[in-house]
Amino acid sequence: MEKQRGILALIVVVLMIAIVFLVTMPIRLGLDLQGGAQLTIQLKTTEEIKKITAKELEEVFSVIEDRVNGLGVSEPVVQTVGSDQILVQLPGVNDPKEAERVLGGTAQLEFRKQKPGSEAQLRIEQEVRGELLRKKEELQENQEELEKNNDENGLATIREEIAENQAAIARSNEAIAKLFEDANLTGKNLKDANYGPAGQTSNTWEVILRFDAAGGQAFADLTKDLAGTGRSIGIFIDNGLISSPVVGPEFAQNGITGGNAVITGNFDAQSSKELAVQLRGGALPVPVEIVENRTVGATLGKDSIQRSIYAGIGGLTLVLVFMAVYYRVPGLIADVALIIYAILSLAAFAALGVTLTLPGIAGFILSIGMAVDANVLIFERTREEIRAGKTLYRSVESGFYRAFSSILDGNVTTVIACAALFWLGSGLVKGFALTLGLGVMVSMFTAITCSRTFMLLLVLGIPGLRQKPQLFVPNPPVSQ
Length: 480
Hints:
Layout: H1 2-24, E1 28-29, H2 31-34, E2 36-43, H3 54-70, E3 77-81, E4 85-91, H4 96-103, E5 109-114, H5 119-149, H6 152-177, E6 180-186, E7 190-197, E8 205-211, H7 213-226, E9 233-237, E10 240-243, E11 260-267, H8 269-280, E12 288-296, H9 298-327, H10 329-351, E13 355-356, H11 358-387, H12 392-424, H13 428-461
Parallel strand pairs: 1-13
Antiparallel strand pairs: 2-4, 2-12, 3-4, 5-6, 5-9, 7-8, 8-11, 9-10
Helix pairs in contact: 1-10, 1-13, 3-8, 5-6, 9-10, 9-11, 10-11, 10-13, 11-12, 11-13, 12-13
């Protein structure tokens, strides 16, 4: 009896910790539940690469995945579509244009040297480009407003203006690119790019670069040529200038050696992070183009959540009622164990940072069925022992003992299947496998520990209950 009370105290403590987790760490929701951005990226052929093969697709996928991970988005989904497309889903991202800007470094990363005598012209061209980019943001905001109002005439006009603006930006990029020359240094030579505060007391941030051996030598030569001249290093992605740092005169003798460098300037945490992500993306084997960039609205997500909650509550209620009616006292105990199971499972999702999606909810609901199945096995074995004429206490003990191997085998095989789905699957399949696997493991704990403890406490703690086996099984033997 003392042992059972100790286990009960442990269950209460675990349950309280789980409730604290649920209150302080809300469960993260996936793209299908909370909305976000979805981008489709198309790989394009070149003169050198006439056909997209699995090799190019794999290399581009790796680069895009690194850039997405650098965004810090909760549980993004990156997967291939067909033989030449990549789908990117970013839950919770309300500004898909921002995601496109970071992921849109679609061609090779290049470091170039500014040509002598181009200083004044570069400043003019950068001002022109800055105005065009500001105009682009304004046009996009106007387009979104017109789309909300379903103003077709206004949309037709704004789309023409956007097309003209994009053409002007392309011309500006080409003009700026002509002011730089090749320095034989590309993203293939960049091993890593990171970001951090420029100093302990400074509010400015910096970007840290690390090159390979060949890149380190090329960078040293480049910085030696530009040091103290006022001309900049042009960092280009897709022939667009993303940064143009200037090398100080102190590096005029040897350049910046060692393969490491720091870009300082008017950076905050966000802008330094975005530049580091773009640089860390490295070189792509082929150009790519973002052919679709759309926002998945939160309305669909709310509707999905609502329907899932209704389905879950409805199904759980029916299960609780059935267990109580059919299995009587053990059924009521199983109901309490199932409620504990639901709380512990959701707390595990929150503690482990699981992002819940519709397939994930399906996995969770399916694991409820597994938890019920475990209790059904236990109670049926207990009934068999009672009908065989054993005492209630011995029947409960034997019922759990006899059912344990079946429960263990069923749960282990399910967990193995979940592990295979998680390892070999991708995207939403992983979410389903993860929630089902976690749920099955928690159900094992609640069925074997919670249900057994509650049953034994009732049998041992209420002597009169032992004389009423009909509360456990209809028509018990008279000898009982």
